[in-house]
Design brief:
With 520 residues, the protein is mainly α. The protein is built from 20 helices and no strands.
């Protein structure tokens, strides 16, 4: 029998949990290196614009959907669907049309997948969108725990003083040796999964909320310490200028679209997390202000991570455009070179920061699977946690065998070659690419359309500013002013969620599909 739905114990606890979901490896690992690749400050400006114009509207929509329905994504979409709505049929038809276009561009396997989704919309309606959100959260969890395991090992090595590499080649060799060892990666994956499952096992208040209240303040303290140390290094100003001074001549169309995609990844949008977390909100909580606090904390940590990393990288003479290896290969060298013989401490603090961020995000993408099993399979929380952890770990171990190459699973490579027409370097990269470049944008597109045109902005707006202006605590003039500001804010939100966000997300998707091309 399904257990009674739990709720957050406090607004602060919810904000910490929501911020913990958003503040993850996307902020501290991915954001710095894609900023370095895309030229620095100009990319940061575009990313902030994407957060404000697209991230905030979609985040508020997800929270409102969850709170209003008191259900996870699958149930939330089904709860507010109108039986007579023709939009699912339009989306289904659009999917079939896009499938035909993909066939024309040679992406036969991907065309088949899009076509199947279109047919599913025609048959099952909006519940398909909720299922896609939940499924992508599970897939991301399966490879996210692998990265978490690597970070766990690096944190241990750092505090033990074993990251004192002499050259970048030594650092790269250490990482490749770990990533290429399937059994070691699998063991580390299990070691990282255990605390994630353990937190969710104890529920919303005693597990997720309590852990977030402890870990998030620790994370903020560590990042401030690293920022202060980085800014006091000789030559740090060059890194700060690279990160914060925009030079739009260095920005390409690919960089623009990458900024848009990263806004989704960074805020955990389109992956069921925020809908699930929103469903644990009591009616009296203010979604609008809580959502803005989550975005503010997430964005501040991303910026602080860049301020902690780039001044140190420039001061120690390293390259900011090192790509994904920036964290595992370049930063250990950077921190070891800081004067004072405390490289082990700075490395340790940095990878502890990464570990906390990875844990809070992994917990958040673990929870939608648990909630779905509790809601639809009628599992108890404990049983749902065990099933989710076990299945994610098993698939994670398969991915561990193909972090660097397909050699150990050639049949799987052939399958993806058939489905997508082209393969990334490994199963690990393939799943990450499909989730972040294809499924998350499509999910965000569906959420924006559903909120703006099916559930309706008027009903969604009422959910957003419910209890936003308590009548018993304000003078009449203050009430009118506050209510006016709230309604004005929600009016802007409704424009973005109905028109701007869907169009921009669709453009990003069509560009990723190769249907829309730009000259630069």
């Amino acid at each position: 029998m399904m257990e009674k739905r739990e709720h957050w114990g406090s607004t602060f606890g919810f904000i910490m949990a929501g911020a913990g979901s958003a503040i993850g490896l996307g902020n501290i690992w991915k954001f710095p290196y894609i900023t370095g690749i895309n030229g620095g400050g100009a990319f940061v400006c575009v990313y902030l614009a994407c957060i404000f114009f697209i991230g905030v509207p979609v985040l508020l929509s997800e929270l409102a959907l969850g709170r209003a329905s008191q259900r996870g994504p699958i149930g939330a979409f089904g709860y507010f669907s109108r039986k007579s709505s023709i939009l699912p049929k339009v989306i289904g038809g659009f999917g079939l049309g896009l499938s035909a276009a993909l066939f024309a561009f040679g992406s036969n396997g991907l065309a088949l997948m899009v076509g199947l989704i279109g047919i599913a919309f025609l048959v099952k309606g909006w519940s398909v969108a909720g299922f896609c959100c939940t499924a992508v959260a599970f897939l991301i969890l399966c490879y996210y725990i692998i990265i978490g395991g690597w970070i766990l090992r690096y944190a241990i090595l750092a505090f033990a003083g074993k990251l004192s590499f002499a050259t970048a080649t030594d650092a790269t060799g250490c990482f490749l040796g770990m990533a290429g060892d399937g059994w070691l990666s699998a063991l580390l994956t299990i070691g990282f999964m255990v605390p994630c499952a353990g937190v969710c096992y104890f529920g919303v208040k005693k597990g997720i909320e309590l852990a977030s209240k402890i870990m998030m303040p620790v994370l903020l303290v560590i990042i401030f310490v690293l920022v202060i140390r980085s800014l006091t290094l000789p030559g740090a100003s060059k890194g700060l200028e690279f990160f914060l001074k925009p030079d739009f001549t260095k920005l390409t169309t690919q960089g623009l679209l990458e900024a848009l995609g990263h806004a989704f990844y960074s805020l955990s949008l389109g992956m069921a997390t925020m809908i699930t977390y929103g469903s644990y909100l009591p009616r009296q909580r203010n979604i609008f202000s809580a959502g803005l606090w989550i975005v503010l904390l997430d964005t501040c940590v991303a910026l602080l991570a860049g301020i902690a990393i780039f001044p140190a990288v420039f001061a120690m003479g390293q390259s900011p455009a090192a790509g994904p290896g920036l964290i595992f290969n370049i930063l250990p060298l950077t921190f070891n070179a800081i004067p004072g013989s405390l490289g082990w401490l700075w490395n340790g603090l940095f990878f502890l920061l990464m570990l906390i961020a990875a844990l809070t995000s992994a917990i958040s993408i673990f929870e939608p699977g648990v909630a779905a099993l509790m809601e639809h399979a009628k599992f108890s929380r404990h049983k749902a946690v065990i099933v989710t952890a076990g299945s994610a770990t098993v698939l994670g171990m398969v991915i561990c065998s193909s972090v660097l190459t397909w050699e150990r699973i050639p049949g799987v490579e052939a399958l993806f070659q058939t489905l997508t027409g082209a393969c990334r370097a490994s199963l690990f990269e393939q799943i990450d690419y499909l989730c972040s470049s294809w499924v998350l944008p499509l999910n965000g597109f569906a959420i924006a359309l559903f909120t703006g045109w099916i559930w309706g902005v008027s009903r969604a707006s009422r959910e957003l500013y419910r209890r936003g202006v308590p009548a018993t605590t304000l003078e009449r003039t203050e009430k009118i002013r506050s209510l006016f500001f709230m309604r004005l804010s929600v009016s802007f939100w409704s424009i973005f969620i109905r028109f701007i966000a869907p169009v921009l997300v669709l453009i990003m998707f069509l560009y990723a599909a190769g249907i829309v091309k730009f000259t630069k």
